[in-house]
Every structure is written in C-alpha cells, then in structure tokens.
Amino acid sequence: MARLQTYAAFSLLATASSVYYAFSSREQFYPAMVYLSTSKICFVLLLNTGLVAMCVAWQLVKRLFLGSLREAEVERLNEQSWREVVEILFAVTIFRQDFSVSFLAMVAALLLVKALHWLAQKRVEYIETTPSVPMLSHIRIVSFMAFLLIIDCLFLSNSLRSLIQKREASVAIFFSFEYMILATSTVSTFVKYVFYVSDMLMEGQWEKKAVYTFYLELVSDLVHLSLYMLFFIAIFLNYGVPLHLIRELYETFRNFKIRIADYVRYRKITSNMNERFPDASAEELNASDATCIICREEMTTAKKLLCGHLFHVHCLRSWLERQHTCPTCRAPIIPADNGRAASARQPGAQPAAGTGTPASEGASGENMSRRQAKLEAAAAAASLYGRSFVYPPANALSQFLSLQVHHSLKQVPPINLRKTKNCSSKTPAMV
C-alpha cells in the first residue's frame, strides 16, 4: 500500500505538471486539450493517472469490505492474476480491430472486478471454516457481494446495450459473457453463504446442507459450461479460435464431468443404504467407541461399514457426497454385492469342498485353461531361440549335468603317481 501511495503521488505530480504546462503555453482551453491529446508524453501520463485512480479505488473497496487480506487470499490473488493477464493478452490479439483506449480501460476494469470476485469467494470459504465470526464480518461480506452483483449488472447492461446498438459482432461480446459469468459466480457464492448461515442458525443440525450445496455446485458448473460453449462458438464464428477460452472451457467441462460421476456414484451407494450397510447392534456400540468421528457426537443408532467402523446414518450420507472411503481407515466403501464379486475373482480363492457350483467350476476351469495357454505360448516363444527354460526336454537336465562334470574333470590338474609313491615310502622312515 505504501508503494502504491508513493507511485500515485509521483503520477499525480507529473500529470499536474503536464496539464499546467499545456494551459500556460496555449492559454486557451481547446488548444490545451488538443496538445494534451496529441502529445505522446502527456497522453501516457494521463493513461497512467487513470490506471492509478482505478488501483486506488480498488484498494479502497477492498479496505472497506474486506479489511486486511490473509495469506491464503493473497496467494489466490497472485496465482489467478497471472493466469488472467495471459488470457487477456490472448483476448486482445483476437479483438485487435477494436483496440482503443476505451478497450484498455474496460480490460483493466475487468481484471480488477475479477480480483474482487476471487477475494469474495475466498472470504466466504474462510467464514464457513471459522467457528466464531463477528457480526460485522457477516454484514461486510453480504454488502460486498451485493456491491459486486450491482457492478456486474451495470457492466453487463452496458455491454449488451453496445452490442444491440451496433448490431454486429464486436468486443462487447467478450465483456458481456465475462460479466455474465461473474454475475452467476456471485449468485452461487451468495447462495452458498445463505446455506452456511442457515446451518449455523440450526446449530449444525441441517442434514440437507451438503445435498443442496452439491446441487448448487452442479447447476453452477452446468451454467458456466453452457455459457463458455456459447461464448466459444460466438467468437469462433466471428473472429477465429479463442485461445483464451480453451483452459476455462476444459476446466469447467472436467469439473462438471467429475461432479456428474460423483453424483451417480453417490446415488448408487445411497439408494439402498439400509440393505448395503447393516445396523450396529448394542453390543457393537458398547464394544467400540460410540462417538461418530464425523460429527463428534454420541451414537445410539449407527450404520456399520464393511471395515467394521460405525457412523451416523445422516453423517455417512453427507460424507458419501464428497468421499467414497471410510473416514477412519480410508478403506474403500464398496457395496456388499461388489465386494463378494471382487473376492470371488481373486486368484487363489478356492471354494470349500462340497460347496462348488457348476458356474464357479466353469469359471475356475476357464481360468486354468487361460493360464495353461499363456504358459504354452511362453514356451513356444522361448523355443524359437533355443533357450527354453519353461518346458525343458526330458534329457536336458542329464545332458547339462554330464557336461558340467566333464568340464570340471578337465580343469582338475593331473596327479603325479611317482611323487605320491615316494611320499608314501618316505613316510615310515620319517616317523
């Protein structure tokens, strides 16, 4: 902030000097304005002053609604800023025919408004994870989101009005879609905050909060994906391939696909939870710690997973909306039918005597035939090189041993029998 104040002071001083020189040398308003607009130095100074004014206004808005930023918010701001700057540069190359001073001003305003939206989302996430939040913080964040929504609607109406007046494709398409996406993001963040406040007023006993939050994110991703696809088609038909939209379109499609897969998996698991997960008996509750690890409350009734851990029914349902592993041991929560099928498919698992069925016997016979076919194929491939160690011939081992014995006998040095006899004859004399 101190650096911005110093830079703003020098910028204002330089701009004031250029304006004073223009009016003192021309002595009339119109010639002075012509000089300020035609002189390159004065024009750059005026643009710099306008940018500084926008940055100062951004800092004032941030200070008014958010106060001091936290480290996570600063990191999010820095990461997203570089991405957006690169994408904006690509967008400038697409709309180079509409390049002007007003276009640069609108682009700078768009970047600053996007930065405020990132901070609002991060602050709402912080409030949701903080146990005690003062009332002033709630008032400020609600006012901040209302302010952002008004700004989005104003810029959106301005872009749509310009697009309707020109009746042709222009840079107004770019700003219309951008502010439309920002407005939907603001509404989604506000609704998520309303869910949090409702759950807080119910003292954390709102069981449907996670379900509604999941549906909200699913609908939000669907709306964003539709807008990005329409935006991509509009830009592609009028200007060419919009490179700055490829990343956003891919990430939105990937998030939507992941959420659809999670939703299908969640519905599949929770469709018959009473049949998949049995109720825990009183002995099991007394034998183990009767505290639900998800909500940290005592359990009078609970559901038992395949791994043996116990949880509340509503806690388990809300957990399955986000994760599909046990909260305690991280074992996969597999339905009972799939678990038995998986154990039956394990190699080496044999049925007990007298309990084999024709289907299981046929499956085991098929597995054995496949294994035998693989071994025969490996033996045939090795025999092509004459070095088959998979199925050696019947006399291969005897030939190999005879060759080794013959080779070892060749390496043994010959024994001098005369020297041996002399040694044996001298031995009694020495004794």
Automatic annotation (TrEMBL):
Pathway: Protein modification; protein ubiquitination. GO terms for molecular function: ubiquitin protein ligase activity; zinc ion binding. InterPro entries: HRD1_E3_ubiq-ligases, TPR_SYVN1_N, Znf_RING, Znf_RING/FYVE/PHD, Znf_RING_synoviolin. It catalyses: S-ubiquitinyl-[E2 ubiquitin-conjugating enzyme]-L-cysteine + [acceptor protein]-L-lysine = [E2 ubiquitin-conjugating enzyme]-L-cysteine + N(6)-ubiquitinyl-[acceptor protein]-L-lysine. The chain crosses the membrane at residues 34-61, 99-119, 139-157, 169-195, 225-246. One of its GO terms (cellular component) is endoplasmic reticulum membrane. Residues 292-330 form the RING-type domain. Its EC number is 2.3.2.27. Keywords: Endoplasmic reticulum, Membrane, Metal-binding, Transferase, Transmembrane, Transmembrane helix, Ubl conjugation pathway, Zinc, Zinc-finger. It is found in: Endoplasmic reticulum membrane. This is RING-type E3 ubiquitin transferase. Residues 340-371 are annotated as: Disordered.
